[in-house]
Specification:
CATH architecture of the largest domain: 3-Layer(aba) Sandwich
Structural class: alpha/beta
Shape: globular
Distance between the termini: 28 Å
Oligomer: single chain
Order of helices and strands: HEHEHHEEEEEEHEHEHHEEHHEEEEH
Number of strands: 16
Helix content: 10-25%
Largest sheet: 10 strands, mixed
Radius of gyration: 22 Å
Strand order of the largest sheet: 6-5-4-3-9-1-10-11-2-12
Length: 551
C-alpha cells in the first residue's frame, strides 16, 4: 500500500495511488505501473519454466518479538533453530499480524483479506464456532492446490467449522468458549465435520479445533475425530475430551505429523504447502518433561524452547530428505506474548518478551501485532539478510501467487501484496507503506510509513490503560506515534499534527469503504465496520482480573 489512498475520480473502479512517497502530482492520480505490479489479479506474473518451491508456514501461538534470540540480543530464552533460520535467511524487522489475537490473524494469513471485513469484529472464535471462511473464498491453500501443490494443515485450526449435532444441524457456541448447547455433549464426534480445512483447499488436516484451552479436546484427522469425546477434561476450561487426549502431548504430536508429511511428500514430483499453526507457547503452558526447567526463566520460557525444538525438527526433516534448498520456510507468530506467560516474572529475569515494543497480546500497541517474521529459501534468499520493509502476514497469498505465476481473481486476496521481490533482493522501493492493525476489542490502527495512528485512547486490549478498567476520560481520543524516533510509542503527537491525524483517518476510511486496499473493483464487506469504537468506561466495584486465556 502507500501513503496516499485517493479514490480515482475518473471512474468507479476504485483504484488507489500507490506512490511510496506520496503522489507527485495530486491525490487522484493513477500511478498505474506500481499499482498493477502490486496486485497479481491486475497484472498476472507469467509462469517461468522453473521448479516450484515447497512452502512451509509455521505460525507459533502467543510468542513475542523478544522471545526470539536472533531478534532480541538480550533474550534470556535460547532459540537456536529459529536463529538458524535467521542466519540462513532473511529477517523482516517490521512484520505484522493483522490482529493482536489469533483467530483474526489466521483468517488474514489464509485469505489475504483483513479479518475485520467479516462478521468477526472483535475477540476470537470458540471451539464449537461456525466457520469464518466463507464457501468459495480463495485461500493460499486453494490457490496452490490449483497449481499442482499437495496441501496440508497441521495444528491448531481456530477458524470455525461445522460440528454435526446428534439431534441434527450443526453446533454454534456464539462466542461461549465453554460450548453452550449442553456443553458440547450434543456434538456427534463420530460424524464428519463440514466446512473446515478440507473444504478451503487443504488435501489433509490433522490437529485441534481451537486453542488448547477451549473444548472439545480431541484430535481431528481430515473431517473426523480420531477418538470421540467420551469424558470431561479441563485445560483451563472444562469440556468434552477424548480419553487419550492430554494437552502436554499436542505439540510433540503435531510436530511428528508435520515431519511425516514432509518425508512422505519429499520424493513426489508435486511441490507441497504446509500450514503449520502451533498450539504453543499459548496456554495451557505445558512443556514436556524433557523441556521443564531448560530455560532457567519459567515454564513459558521452557515451552518457547520446545517451540524452537519443533522448528528444528522441521529443518531436520528438510535436510534429511534433501529438499531444504528449494523450500521456503516462514516462521512467524499470531500475536505478541500473552500476560499468561507471567510477564512480571520474565522481566524479573531480565527478559523483555516484546523487546523494545510497548504492550503485548490483545493490544493495539506494537507489542500486540509486531511479530517475529523470518524467511529462509536457500535457493533464492540471501543468507543473513535483513529488511526493514513493512510487511504483513496477510501478504502470504499474493506472494505465493507471484512465486507460482498464478493469476488471482480480483475478488480474492483483496488486501494482500506480494513480498517476493523483497525475498529475492529485487525490491527497489517499498512494497507497501501502510498496513492496518486491530486489537482484541476491535480498535483500529493504521501505518503511513513511520507514522502510526491508533484510533483509540489506551491499549484497546489488556495492558494499561485498559478499556473497562482505566479512566481514559482525560486522554486524547486518538494516538499518533512516529515509530522511527519512538518505537516504544511513548510520545503521543496527535495534538501537534492534526493534519496528519485527519489524513490517516481518511486513509483508513477509504480502505474500509472500498472493501479492499489493493487496486480493483469496489467490494462489499461482510458486515458494517465501526471505525472508531466507543470508549469503554471503567467498571464499578470490580477488582482487576487477570485476562482470560484463549485466542
Amino acid at each position: 500500500m502507500s501513503s496516499t489512498f485517493a479514490k480515482n475520480q475518473a471512474g468507479d473502479r476504485g483504484w488507489f495511488c500507490r506512490h511510496p512517497r506520496g503522489c507527485p502530482t495530486n491525490d487522484a492520480c493513477l500511478w498505474i505501473a506500481v499499482c498493477m505490479s502490486a496486485l497479481v489479479s491486475a497484472c498476472p506474473v507469467q509462469a517461468e519454466s522453473r521448479e516450484l518451491p515447497n512452502l512451509i508456514f509455521i505460525l507459533a501461538d502467543d510468542q513475542g518479538f523478544g522471545d526470539v534470540s536472533a531478534l532480541n540480543p538480550d533474550s534470556k530464552i535460547d532459540t537456536p533453530n529459529i536463529d538458524r533460520l535467521a542466519k540462513e535467511g532473511m529477517i523482516f524487522s517490521d512484520g505484522h499480524s493483522s490482529s493482536s489475537v489469533c483467530t483474526p490473524t489466521r483468517y488474514s494469513v489464509l485469505t489475504g483479506r483483513y479479518h475485520w471485513r467479516t462478521h468477526l469484529q472483535q475477540g476470537v472464535l470458540g471451539g464449537f464456532s461456525k466457520p469464518l471462511i466463507s464457501p468459495g473464498r480463495l485461500t493460499v491453500a486453494s490457490l496452490l492446490k490449483q497449481h499442482g501443490y499437495s496441501t496440508a494443515c497441521i495444528g491448531k485450526w481456530h477458524l470455525g467449522w461445522d460440528w454435526p449435532l446428534k439431534s441434527g444441524g450443526t453446533a454454534n457456541d456464539f462466542g461461549d468458549f465453554s460450548g453452550g448447547f449442553k456443553g458440547g455433549w450434543d456434538v456427534d464426534y463420530t460424524a464428519e465435520i463440514q466446512n473446515g480445512p478440507c473444504d478451503v483447499g487443504f488435501d489433509s488436516f490433522f490437529g485441534i479445533s481451537a486453542s488448547l484451552d477451549m473444548p472439545p479436546y480431541v484430535y481431528v484427522r481430515d473431517r473426523t475425530p480420531i477418538e470421540p469425546a467420551t469424558v470431561e477434561k479441563a485445560f483451563h476450561r472444562p469440556g468434552p475430551a477424548a480419553a487419550g487426549f492430554e494437552a502436554v502431548d499436542v505439540l510433540p504430536r503435531i510436530t511428528s505429523e508435520a515431519v511425516r508429511f514432509i518425508t512422505d511428500n519429499s520424493k513426489s514430483d508435486r511441490p507441497f504447502f504446509v500450514f503449520f499453526p502451533l498450539n504453543a507457547p499459548h496456554t495451557p503452558i505445558v512443556p514436556t518433561p524433557q523441556w521443564k526447567g531448560k530455560s532457567g526463566v519459567n515454564a513459558y520460557g521452557d515451552f518457547t524452547m520446545q517451540v524452537d525444538w519443533t522448528v528444528g525438527e522441521i529443518l531436520r526433516a528438510l535436510d534429511d530428505n534433501r529438499i531444504a534448498e528449494n523450500t521456503l520456510v516462514i516462521f512467524t507468530t499470531d500475536n505478541g506474548c500473552s500476560p499468561a506467560a507471567n510477564i512480571a516474572e520474565l522481566e524479573a529475569a531480565g527478559h523483555d518478551q516484546n523487546y523494545i515494543y510497548r504492550g503485548h497480546k490483545a493490544d493495539i500497541y506494537e507489542g500486540g501485532h509486531r511479530v517475529p517474521f523470518i524467511a529462509r529459501w536457500p535457493k533464492q534468499v540471501q543468507a543473513g539478510s535483513r529488511t526493514d520493509q513493512l510487511v504483513g502476514q496477510i501478504d502470504l497469498l499474493a506472494t505465493a501467487a507471484e512465486i507460482v505465476g498464478a493469476k488471482v481473481d480480483e475478488h480474492g486476496g483483496e488486501d494482500s501484496v506480494s513480498f517476493r521481490a523483497v525475498l529475492l533482493g529485487e525490491a527497489k522501493q517499498p512494497i507497501r507503506s501502510s498496513i492496518v492493525s486491530q486489537s482484541i476489542g476491535g480498535q483500529f490502527a493504521i501505518r503511513d510509513g513511520d507514522w502510526k495512528l491508533c484510533l483509540c485512547p489506551g491499549s484497546g486490549g489488556w495492558s494499561a490503560p485498559r478499556p473497562g478498567q482505566a479512566d481514559m476520560s482525560g486522554l486524547p481520543a486518538v494516538q499518533l506515534f512516529n515509530l522511527a524516533i519512538d518505537p516504544g510509542e511513548t510520545n503521543n503527537l496527535e495534538a501537534k499534527h492534526p493534519d496528519r491525524v485527519a489524513k490517516m483517518t481518511q486513509m483508513l476510511r477509504a480502505i474500509i469503504d472500498q472493501g479492499r486496499s489493493t487496486p480493483g473493483p469496489r467490494l462489499e464487506n461482510d458486515a458494517e465496520i465501526v471505525m472508531i469504537k466507543p470508549i469503554v468506561k471503567p467498571r464499578k466495584k470490580k477488582a482487576v482480573r487477570k485476562p482470560a486465556a484463549g485466542g
